[in-house]
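Final report, closing paragraph on structural work. Over the funding period we assembled a curated collection of sequence-structure pairs, and we close with a single example.
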Amino acid sequence: MHTPTATPLTTADAETLVATARAAADAAGVPVSVTVLDAGGHLLAFRRDDRAVLISGETSTRKAYTALQLDAPTAGLVDLVKPDGPFHSLPTALDKPLLFIAGGVPVHRDGRLVGAIGVGGGTPDQDHGFATAALEALSR
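Its predicted structure, as stored:
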């Protein structure tokens, strides 16, 4: 049986994601960091605005990693890890850099997971919006 493969994310794709997310953040006046990972969790692109808080580099990367590993936007996972949520122990159960704050979004191509983008530096809702704007630009 032949399993269809999807075209992997390229560095050009990653640069498009970073540029679009940063443009959306710049338009909102929000300094951010943006991380793009490939399907294996390897760094394809990273950019931190000079004015972004330093921790945003770490949060953008962890958000991208979480979205990739769980194949879901981190915005939709926040309630699942609250103390009364079904996955409340997940953030501490694994020795992995997971972060359950909005701003991470998986990237799909031809119905397959090919990577993820994470944005940090704004509010969780802003970061999610910047990441999804980048994803929409890539699908054009």
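The chain is about 35% helix and 20% strand. The mean pLDDT is 93. We thank the funder for supporting this effort.
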